[in-house]
Amino acid sequence: MASQVNLNQQILSISGDLTFATVQALHCAVKKLPQAFARDLEVDFVDVAKVDTASLALCLSIERMMTGGFAVSYKNVPPEMVLIAESVGVDSLFA
Question: Is the pLDDT of residue 52 over 80?
């Protein structure tokens, strides 16, 4: 499934697969949206089909891109992604 990102009203919607094969391109697409990081941001995974550990790398990268003390929150996190986060001790990302 093709992966893509879309920013609308500080909601970053991610769709498709979040895997080693797709995350680098998604990361580059997210970096091209600097306005996303100047306010609080919500990341919505509602249309994500498949995840692996690379999906956490994307989340951690988004966290690092946030500026000025703004926060990122996550919505519709796939259960598999939560399990991966728990297994590596970063489940606080989705709390």
Answer: yes
